[in-house]
Amino acid sequence: MRKIFPNINFVLYLIGRMVSDTGTGIQMIIMPLYIIDAGGSAATVGLFSFLSLVPALCVYPFAGVLGDRLNRKTIMVATDFLSAGVILGLTVLSYNGSMSLSVLLAAQVLISLLNGIFDPATKGMLPQLVAQEELTRANSRVASLRGLSILLGPVIGASLYANFGITMLFLINGVSFLLSGISEIPIRYKHVIREHEGGIAGIMTELAGGVKFILANSTIRKLCYYFLVIYALIQPVYSVALPLFYKTRLQYADTQYGYLQSALILGMLLGSVLIGLVFGKGQDMLKPLKVGSGLLAAGMIMFSVFMFPGILSTIGNGSILYFVLLSGALCLSSAAIMFVNVPVQSFIQRETPNQYMSRVFSIVGMITRGGLPFGALIYGFILERAPIHWTVLVGTLLMVFISVVFFISFISN
User: How many domains does the chain have?
Assistant: First the structure.
């Protein structure tokens, strides 16, 4: 029986991802605090968050073409080293007292662009490092380590920032990218050279080829539609509805909001581990997807019910019991999302030919992530006019309806 951990290429791949993810997690958690301490406003914090996501989304489709044309390992190593250079540059500026918010925002654009180039190549590379029957377990371990990195980020970052300041945070993040790139160099990866048309016309032709492949594959196409709607409906609950509900309806200290965020991250970590243990060897995507969708519906319904004023007053606003129940609902829904994400990613990796791999992941990633900012805008607009508990419940029920329609369409095919 083939094991994943003796596979040295996959181990090096995991080390590279975890080291850079931990460094990024440390910096991203602390940046809003630093921006405010440096005289920035809430708008500046929002702009920083915007610049952390949108440039990557814009470069995603073209990064997919590069990932299919060029050596994916080379892209992975080069983007890590370039990210290290940008962040170590910030370290020098901060140490010399030359740091400004405009420089920080410009650097974030570069980092986001590099991340957008890194991600499709990295996901396209994984199927060539492990056997097909091990893909679900491999993706589970990648997601688990990413969850662990995100979980460690706030703890390490807050301590470092409080004791050593922002310069040390930049230094550690820059070194983490440097170590990540170094650990990836020994990976044995064979790049298949293929002919392609040069210039902008060639890039657009290959991008169109990736789109045609997705449209021709009915399963991947339906998964793109499903993810677009689900992410637009569910993810803004965590980023828009939850903080609004916490600040306006609940009677807890601000520090306990961090515990709710930890519950979300813990759910992500647990879900990543469980999907590997329960469905690690299976190649059937539909079964874990059904389980994940069912758990997501249960978790979100629980969360929305707990938001109703009658339930809140009955259990006790500000009580330990209510906080535990709310944390449990968030943890369950976050774990369920991993039951959806991991098998779908493994399915796409198995179904996509190597020459299309990075393009397909770049387009799928752009579609799924593209729903997030629009969903957040819609939720923000609705919450100005409608009660928060009804808004989240209606969004959850709409998600359940879409999931049922989605699965019926699969069964009928």
Answer: 2
